[in-house]
Each structure stands twice: as structure tokens, then as C-alpha cells.
Amino acid sequence: MNTLINGIHHVTALAGDAQRNVDFYTGVLGLRMVKKTINFDAPDVYHFYYGDETGSPGSIMTFFPYGNIPRGRKGGGQLTYTAFSVPTASLSYWMDRLAEYNIPYAGPNKRFNETYLRFEDYDGMGIELVANNEDNRPSWDNGKIPADYAVKGFHSATLNEFRVDKTVALLTDTMQHRLVAEEADRFRFVAGIGGPGTYIDVQHSPNDIRALQGAGSVHHIAFATDNDETQIAIQENLQEAGFSPTPVLDRNYFHSIYFREPGGILFEVATNPPGFAIDEPAAALGQELKLPEWYEPRRAQIESALPKIQL
Known about the structure:
It is a single chain. By secondary structure, the protein is an alpha+beta fold. 16% of the residues lie in helices and 36% in strands. The chain contains five helices and 16 strands. A hairpin with a 2-residue loop joins strand 2 and strand 3. It starts with 6 loop residues before the first strand and ends in a 6-residue tail after the last helix.
């Protein structure tokens, strides 16, 4: 069987203030701003992409900072915690760093065979740092956080579900995930070759309140696929399984299809190419506002409507 799903491609969330979002993800977590563009469906809103040095699939955290919007609410039918992978030896460093920035955290906690810290960004989005020695991906040396301690990319994502059976069936029967661990109503699935960046945790939470979208809530999770051909194969598999994926949409840096999983969470399947160096040099990623060609005639108007930010 051909591998159609490799793991997590990106996670996209809603945010409030644009500058505070930049300050948290580049300043506190030390991620690189790899693309500064706009929401293609709402061009008066930024779309920020953070990741490793090149914005590799499996490292990309993205945000739509809408400004003064109400906070969301964690609950059932939502991706509640996005976990990043860090080296085991870095855990005390991160505890000190979070304390330095006055960011409350819980932990170190234990889950499966791993140790993790749990906290929230400035909008209340759930974040975890999972300490492990399994991640061989290179860290980005940003000159602020030692490379030996830096975030390597995603580790996993937690989906809170009122019922898990149909979501589990989607992951295993259609999306090529495998159940690898179970603990306290948490089911861990892995895709592709496995390891950090390929884990999905499905948390059975029948007594949760229903999640509400707003600042600090995840809009969707995207799964990585190799190319346009594998994406079409997944699209066909989803249709055969009774789902209604969208047509392929061109997001400039990848191609996408979207659909709702049975618990209501928005899933995307995104191609690994063409990547973020398609419209600016790799050394200059994220420095300038990039617009899709159909918005270029409106650049002056769009730039005037967007808040100024400092990287």
C-alpha cells in the first residue's frame, strides 16, 4: 500500500492581537516566522506561518489574528492541545523560560512514556512541550534559544471527542493511522514512519462542554501528503467512505482539501510541495508581506488595513 498520509502538516488557529501572537511564537517559543501573508478568504486579516528554518511540514503553526474577538472555549469537538517536540535535556530550560515570561504552566507531567509541560499562549490556546530523545529533526538556531534546547516541530495533537468510534474508524480505515498506545481514555495513533510529528491523540471526553471557536482556538489540523497524486487518492478514499472533501484548493505554498471528521473537527490534507521558498529566498522567509497574485492589484489597500507588526 502506498503511503498517503505522512503525519501532521500544519495546525491553524485563531488569535487576537497580531503583535502579541508574533511575540509569543517567535519570542517565547523561538519559532521562525516563515511566511507573512493574508487570509485568502478575508484579506484584511494576516495569516502568519511559524515553523523551523524552512517551514518544513510537521513544524508549521499558523494563525489568523482577527484582533479584538472573543476568546474561544476548549471542549468537545475540538483540537484542544497542540504539542511541540523538545529534547529531554531541555525541560528545565523551558520551565525557567516560561517562568521568565510569567507564563503559568502545569508539570512536568507524565503520559505514556513521555514527560511534558502544559500551558497556554496569550490567547488561551493549549500548548504542550513534550520532552523526548526520539526526534532527529534539526532545530532552528535563532540566536536566542540554544539549538540543543529549541523546538524541533510538532510532537502530537489532542482531539477531544464526545464519541471516538467513528473518528477512530476514519483515522485507521481511511487515513492510514495505526493505534500504538492507550491510556486513561486517550488513544494514540501514528502515521507514516512514526515518531514525533506523526502522532494524533484522540481523547474520549463524553462529559466535556461543547467547544466554541474564538481567539485561542484551533481552526483546523492539516495532514501531510507527498504530492498532488497522493492527495487525489486520499480525496477518492474519503468520498468512498462517505465524506465530502472539498475540491483541491491552491494555497500557494501547498494544495489543500478540507472535510469535517465525525466529531466536527475540520481536517485538511495538504501537499508537502511547493513550500515556502516559492516566492522569496529561504534566507528571507517571513520578512515581507506576500500576497497571492490575484490580490497584488489591491496591495496598497490591503497593507493600509493591516496592523503594523515588529518581528
